[in-house]
Amino acid sequence: MSNDGSKLEYLAPRAKPVSIEDKKGGYLPEPSDRMTLENNFYDEINKNNSRSWDKLSEGVKKNPFVPLGCLVTIGVLANGILAMRNKDRLKSQRMMRYRIAAQGSTIIALVIGTMASNYFAKSE
């Protein structure tokens, strides 16, 4: 400390903003660079989501019975849970058996659809 009343403080060297390529210092990039990074990140996520929807729609077109089987399974399960909540044991048991049948049908549709798509892909 000096005698004139001013404090002598240790100031850490001010971090210079670094570019995206130079991350060795561990400093955050400038806000404009951060916004660019965030925009690139969200653009990549949106691109991946659109690819996911494209894959999903392509899969539904190839084998429409699998999503249909999933919807039937969910419907039967919901009906069984409601019956269980209403304490209707007979209907609840019946719905759980139907659920297993619906799940089995979905699995069979998945296997048959996969085999068919492989067969037709080889013949082309």
Automatic annotation (TrEMBL):
Transmembrane as UniProt keyword: yes
Protein name, UniProt field: HIG1 domain family member mitochondrial
Alphabetized UniProt keyword annotations: Membrane, Mitochondrion, Transmembrane, Transmembrane helix
BP terms from Gene Ontology: mitochondrial respirasome assembly
Single GO cellular component term: mitochondrial membrane
Major subcellular location class: mitochondrion
Domain spans labelled HIG1: 37-124
Translocase found in the keyword field: no
InterPro entries in alphabetical order: Hypoxia_induced_domain, RCF1
Transmembrane segments: 65-84, 96-121
Cellular localization per UniProt: Mitochondrion membrane
